What we know:
By secondary structure, this protein is an alpha/beta fold. The chain has a single domain, classed as TIM Barrel (Alpha-Beta Barrel).
Amino acid sequence: MIFGAHESIAGGVFNAVERGKKATCDTIQIFNKSNNQWRAKKLVTEEIDKFFEAIETTGVTVSVSHTSYLINIASPDEALSDKSREALAEEMQRCEMLKIPNLVLHPGSHVGSGEEAGLAKVAENINRMFDKLEGNSVTLLLETTAGQGSNLGYKFEQLAAIIDMVNDKDHMGVCLDTCHIFGAGYPITDKKDYNKTIKEFNTIVGLDRLRIIHINDSKKEFASRRDRHDHIGQGLIGLDAFRNFVNDRRLKKVPLILETPKGEDLAEDIENLKVLRSLVKK
């Protein structure tokens, strides 16, 4: 299995790779710009070169980037919708520059316009974005959500509906988050329930579209529709669920990425990855 974590780009994107090495990651996820600002600091040649050098030196790959939390391409507000689409396109281009193969996107919130209208808006914006991206090689991954508020993406059917409306399906994929699907009401702890959930995902979306798994425990109970991440084995999901994931041969090439709280010494990442690796059957 391929294990990793989300690492900070503080001080430059290349620093995230070094942090990944310190945290014992095989691969990492990053933000390719500040996650809480619209403005993006330009990627200069020196920083990009250091990024590739860090990957070569450490052996830690960067398998995915995560979009800014400000982006909402489901918004019925045209100004925000346009701004979000432009920001998403810029992040896709930054992934291209850094040779990061995947970009994770929360489908967004319909903010009262209704789920059907929201899903259509997401697909419309993705189509408009792809139409302007020339020679794109980055796969856009729709992330499963817990369904809090008016958030879209808490049902596998919603992800499938968006992909079905997107013209460039070759560059569409999915990121599954264990905390989110647990909160959305998909059981994963009992082995039979886990297999049923994965079978359902495969039938509706397709395992061939599953590129990344965010592997997080949950502070909130099953079907709570709440998104609160916890350390592996310390939340309400339980170790058996993670044992199911790390021993599923169908997921052997899908990176499992932590998104759990941590300090600067990355001790929590190290411990969480140690726990995950200990669950792998020898």
